[in-house]
Amino acid sequence: MATHPQQNLYSQLEHLQTKYVGTGHPDISRHDWCTNMARDSIATYLGHRSLVTLFATVEGESNGRIRYHLLEKLHSPYGESDEIVLTKKERLTQF
C-alpha cells in the first residue's frame, strides 16, 4: 500500500532541508534566510560572465574588480547576526 501523498511530501522536504543548507527549515532566522538568498544571487552573478560585464559597465569598473567585490560580499553579505536563534519549542514556551 502507498503512504499518504502529504506524508511523502514532508519526508522529501525534510530530506532536501538536511541535504542543502539554503533550503531553510522552520527554525531558520530571518538573517540566515536573507544571507542564503544573497549568497545564491551572488553565486549566480559570478557564474554568468555577461552579468559581471553588465555590472562593470554600469559602475564604470573593470570586470576583475567587480568579481573581487562580489567574492568579498559572498563571505558575509549582511554582516554578523545579532539575533538569538530559538527553536520552535523554545519560542512556544516563551509565552
From TrEMBL:
Superkingdom field: Eukaryota
Classification via InterPro entries: SF3b5/RDS3-10 (IPR009846)
A cellular-component GO term for this protein: precatalytic spliceosome
GO biological process: mRNA splicing, via spliceosome
Pfam family, one: SF3b10
PANTHER family reported in the protein's UniProt record: SPLICING FACTOR 3B SUBUNIT 5
Name of protein: Splicing factor subunit
Lineage of source species: Eukaryota, Rhodophyta, Bangiophyceae, Galdieriales, Galdieriaceae
